[in-house]
């Protein structure tokens, strides 16, 4: 079945470009477009798309607030959100990731990366543009967390040696398939290790895992 995608961006030209790229794939269907965050949240709650592709800077309700509404800590049934924006080391990008965004892409990213990010979000994984992963982590690791977000303490149950290896790979921005190839593990085994580390650290996603690892010199 096709992955149903909602696109939200205040620029019609950007929305059109994203739709053209995604509609070129038979396994992706753009089911809705929104010009602001409030419209995006209303549409997303109504049609429940498989992935929400949100710009950060939008009128009425910006992409940060929309991300919290759709994927934040208090959301009972969160929707997968991928943030796509220009990256200017803005602290609000950090806020968006801490608020539940599952992926992060630059607007100048290639069509292949956009396709991969949508698929990753739909299957419960995450993808950050590798061109900004290290820069993102270095910029925001050690900075103040977003309001209401608590830093993860050291795990009560220590990580295993293999979990430490997987954590280090996540901190370098590797996806599950890449980790599997590097560590000679099956995809399902990698997913299990990532899930176990998330549980032990009390974190929501692999973005937080990466930042946690860098903050502690892992």
UniProtKB/TrEMBL annotation:
InterPro entries: CheY-like_superfamily (IPR011006), NreC/VraR/RcsB-like_REC (IPR058245), Sig_transdc_resp-reg_C-effctor (IPR016032), Sig_transdc_resp-reg_receiver (IPR001789), Tscrpt_reg_LuxR_C (IPR000792), WalR-like (IPR039420). SMART domains: HTH_LUXR (SM00421), REC (SM00448). One of its GO terms (biological process) is regulation of DNA-templated transcription. The modification 4-aspartylphosphate is found at residue 55. PROSITE patterns: HTH_LUXR_1, HTH_LUXR_2, RESPONSE_REGULATORY. Residues 152-217 form the HTH luxR-type domain. CDD domains: LuxR_C_like, REC_NarL-like. Gene3D superfamilies: 3.40.50.2300. It comes from the Bacteria. Residues 4-122 form the Response regulatory domain. PANTHER family: TRANSCRIPTIONAL REGULATORY PROTEIN NARL-RELATED, TWO-COMPONENT RESPONSE REGULATOR. This is Response regulator transcription factor. The lineage of its organism: Bacteria, Bacillati, Actinomycetota, Actinomycetes, Micrococcales.
């Amino acid at each position: 079945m096709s992955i149903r995608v909602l696109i939200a961006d205040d620029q019609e030209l950007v929305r059109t470009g994203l739709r053209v790229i995604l509609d070129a794939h038979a396994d992706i269907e753009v089911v809705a477009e929104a010009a602001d965050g409030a419209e995006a949240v209303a549409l997303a709650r109504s049609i429940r798309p498989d992935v929400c592709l949100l710009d950060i800077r939008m009128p009425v309700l910006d992409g940060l607030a929309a991300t919290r509404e759709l994927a934040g800590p208090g959301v009972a049934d969160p929707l997968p959100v991928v943030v796509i924006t220009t990256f200017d080391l803005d602290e609000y990008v950090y806020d968006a990731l801490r608020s539940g965004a599952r992926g992060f892409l630059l607007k100048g990213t290639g069509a292949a990366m956009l396709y991969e990010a949508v698929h990753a979000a739909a299957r419960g994984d995450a993808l950050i543009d590798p061109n900004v992963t290290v820069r993102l982590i270095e910029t925001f690791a050690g900075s103040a967390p977003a309001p209401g977000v608590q830093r993860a303490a050291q795990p009560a149950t220590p990580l295993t040696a293999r979990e430490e290896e997987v954590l280090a790979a996540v901190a370098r921005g590797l996806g599950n398939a890449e980790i599997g190839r590097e560590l000679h593990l099956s995809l399902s085994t990698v997913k299990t290790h990532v899930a176990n580390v998330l549980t032990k650290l009390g974190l929501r996603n692999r973005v937080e895992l990466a930042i946690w690892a860098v903050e502690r010199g892992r």
